[in-house]
Design a protein that fits this description.
369 residues, Cathepsin D, subunit A, domain 1, 8-stranded mixed sheet, 6-stranded mixed β-barrel, 7% helix, aspartyl protease, Peptidase A1 domain-containing protein, protease, aspartic-type endopeptidase activity
C-alpha cells in the first residue's frame, strides 16, 4: 500500500458474548487464518494460540501453512493477563483486519502461545491496544502495538480507535482512525476526560453519586481508574470498596457470595451510579447495564430471575473500568492526545455526560453507629 494512498479507517464488527466479552477476528499468515481475539485496551502484545498448544482451544494458528511466518526467538517467555497465564515465543507474520488482503500489517511482531491457562474457549488470543507509555520506576518496555502497525502501514490516518459497545442484539464494532459522528447519539455531547501518562488508559476518579439526589454524592481521594475493554466487570478500588458497597446495597436485597453480590433481576429499585472524573465530569452506569442475568432470562419485575451485580470489589487499590461501564458508550481513544472521549452511542439509553460537576461535600465512608 502506497503511503500516498488515502487511509481506509476500517470498521470491524464485534461479537458480544452474553454482555461479558467482546471479540472479533484477525486474519493471520499468508493463508489468512481466521482467529478470534479480544481487542483489549488493557494489554500490549498480540498473542495467538499455536495449533501445537495442547492446553489451547478453538481454531489456533498453524505455523506450517503460512509461508510468511518467521520465528524470531526460541526463548520461551511468560505473559500474565489477570487470571490467564501464557507461555510462548516471539514471531512475525502478516496480520489483517479482513480476509481480502486489505487492511493488513505485512510484517508484525507478535507472541505465539505454546501453553496457557485461563483463556476462554471462545477466543484464540488477545490483541493489545493499551496506551503503551513508560511507567516511572518500572523497568518494562511495551510490546508492539497493532494500532501502530496500522498507522505505519497507512491503513489509518491517526492513532485513534473507538469502541461502540452495545447491548445484544445491537451490533457492536470498533472504528479505527477518525471517529464517526454517525455512531454517536449526539456528537456535541462527546466529552474528553484527561489521562495520566502511563502504560494503561489511566484516568483519575474522585467521587461517586448513587442516583440523582446530591445527598447521596460522595467524594474520595484521587483514585486511579484503568479503562479496560478486556475486563467484563467494574472493579472498585480497595480503599473505597467497603463504603461503596455499603451505600450501593443499602435498602436493597442482595447477598454476597464468592466475590459477587447476587440480587433479583428486577432493576427498578437499583440506582444509576455516577462517577466523577478529575476534570469534574460525571459519567454513569445504569442498573440495566450493571445487573447481569445469571440465567439468560430477561423477565422483569416480581418474576425476574437472579442477577449478578457486575460491580465487584478489587483486591488492588485502583478502579478497573470494564465492559459493564463501557457498554452504552462510544468511547474514542486518542493515543497521540493521550485522552479518551465518551458519548452515548447511537440508540443508547445511557445518560449524557455532565462536565459541570462539583466535588461532593460528603466523604465516601461507612457511617459509624
Amino acid at each position: 500500500r502506497s503511503r500516498l494512498q488515502q487511509a481506509t479507517n476500517p470498521q470491524i464488527e464485534l461479537t458480544n458474548a452474553y454482555n461479558t466479552m467482546y471479540y472479533a477476528p484477525v486474519y493471520t499468515g499468508s493463508d489468512n487464518q481466521k482467529l478470534s481475539v479480544v481487542y483489549d485496551t488493557g494489554s500490549d502484545w498480540l498473542v495467538l494460540e499455536d495449533s501445537e498448544c495442547e492446553s489451547c482451544f478453538g481454531q489456533n494458528f498453524n505455523t506450517t501453512t503460512s509461508s510468511s511466518f518467521n520465528q524470531l526467538s526460541d526463548i520461551v517467555e511468560d505473559r500474565l493477563y489477570g487470571s490467564a497465564a501464557l507461555k510462548g515465543t516471539r514471531v512475525t507474520d502478516k496480520v489483517c483486519l479482513n480476509a481480502d488482503n486489505e487492511e493488513c500489517v505485512p510484517i508484525f511482531e507478535w507472541f505465539l502461545i505454546e501453553s496457557q491457562t485461563g483463556l476462554p474457549s471462545d477466543i484464540d488470543g488477545i490483541l493489545g491496544m493499551c496506551l503503551g507509555l513508560p511507567i516511572d520506576g518500572i523497568d518494562y518496555e511495551a510490546g508492539p502495538l497493532y494500532v501502530d502497525g496500522l498507522k505505519n502501514s497507512s491503513i489509518i490516518d491517526e492513532r485513534t480507535f473507538s469502541f461502540f459497545m452495545a447491548d445484544n442484539p445491537t451490533q457492536s464494532f470498533i472504528d479505527f482512525g477518525e471517529p464517526r459522528d454517525a455512531a454517536m447519539s449526539n456528537p456535541d455531547d462527546l466529552i474528553y476526560v484527561p489521562l495520566v501518562k502511563h502504560f494503561f488508559w489511566l484516568g483519575i476518579w474522585t467521587g461517586v453519586r448513587f442516583g440523582e439526589d446530591s445527598s447521596r454524592a460522595y467524594g474520595y481521594s484521587d483514585s486511579p481508574a484503568i479503562y479496560d475493554t478486556g475486563s467484563s466487570l467494574l472493579y472498585v478500588g480497595q480503599s473505597q470498596s467497603d463504603a461503596f458497597f455499603h451505600e450501593l446495597t443499602k435498602d436493597q436485597v442482595a447477598e454476597y457470595y464468592s466475590g459477587f453480590y447476587l440480587t433479583s433481576c428486577d432493576k427498578t429499585p437499583w440506582p444509576t451510579v455516577h462517577f466523577l472524573t478529575a476534570n469534574s465530569t460525571w459519567m454513569a452506569v445504569e442498573p440495566s447495564t450493571y445487573l447481569l442475568n445469571a440465567q439468560g432470562d430477561d423477565t422483569e419485575g416480581a418474576d425476574a430471575g437472579i442477577c449478578i451485580i457486575g460491580i465487584v470489589p478489587n483486591a488492588a487499590d485502583y478502579w478497573l473500568v470494564g465492559d459493564v461501564f463501557l457498554r452504552g458508550f462510544y468511547s474514542v481513544h486518542r493515543m497521540d492526545d493521550m485522552t479518551i472521549g465518551f458519548v452515548p452511542h447511537q440508540g443508547s439509553t445511557k445518560p449524557r455526560l455532565s462536565d459541570q460537576g462539583t466535588f461532593p461535600e460528603q466523604t465516601l465512608s461507612i457511617p459509624y453507629n
